[in-house]
Amino acid sequence: MKSRLKKVMALLFAFLLCTGCGATQTIDDYATNEGYDSAQQGTSAVEKTGEGIPKDEIKVGVLHLTDPAEGSGYTYTHDLGIQGMQKNLGLSDEQIDRKINVDDTDEVAVEKALQECVDEGCNIIFTTSWGYMDCTEKMAEKYPDIYFCHGTGYKSNGKNFINYFGRIYQARYLSGIVAGMNTSSNKIGYVAAQGIDNSEVTGGIDAFAIGVASVNPDAKIYVKVTNSWYDPEGEKAAAGQLLDLGCDVMAQHCDTPYPQTMAEDAGVYGIGYNSDMRKETPDSCLCSVVWNWGAYYTSAVQSVIEGTWTGENYYGGMKEGLVEITDLADFCADGTQEKVDEAKARILSGDYNVFDGVMETNTGDMIGEDGGTLDDATITGGINWYYKNVELLD
Question: Which residue has the higher pLDDT, 51 or 268?
């Protein structure tokens, strides 16, 4: 992701749709009148860059990796955001064009889904998975009058093709504190979709590991990589290996809730990802790291309607309400909430950015410098190392 993030886009997204996420995520967590009003106020200060498109002529396309009807995880959470945008802007069901179960490793299938969105009259298209990136880039060049938005990844053209993602590492860090405070074995499992070459996943692991170390320097994070964004069987196998190792807290960067359900079945704790996984694992989920995509989707579509589209990438965080952790379970260890609140306040105040100072990797190398912090370009594209308390499993 290019680090060309401007204050203009920050204005578009500076409203909170789900500051606590204390309940299981629903459409109402992503669509509130307060959120809509804040989005309107943000866009009103932005100079128009075009004529805009009348709201009744807007049609929104979205490519999903799986089926939102699964009711949990990555695709489900993105679709809650789409539903929130639809509710905020008052769009009809006919104005939303969903393509589901689009395999992001199948270039033919991705191009077919994108072409269908174009042929069916979509003015703005969201592609939500990393593997959609190259096809989205190609289609944006072919159709310069259509707006293409790619989630995760790093490519953009500054015109009709932008990248959107968020500072999920901030919430990962907080969840690491929770894990570190609640492990008894000092063995924490982490099922990861991709390996060390993918900064999105590796950066999340490292932020989590830094959070663990801040409260429990004796704990280790054991990582098992599936090499797939969505692999139910692989995620089950990875979780099983980590549980057999004696991990008593299970975290994840993968799409299904299997690491969580298997942890509950084994009588150990879990930390969910993407959506609030307490509905699947009420007796074991310490908290979940969640996205509030409705904040982004509402403002992106609104900018097309208003003619205020800037072509800028978006990279929001806790301050913008894009990422968060859910309320902690009442069975968390004493003192956990206080540690989380303290760390969150430091991040929101700007005093702490997680990847600060000199950090030691698990190979003994030193990253960063005294008094410094990693920049956005490095965080999104240059974290190809594991923190000192991380151990990668074969």
Answer: 268
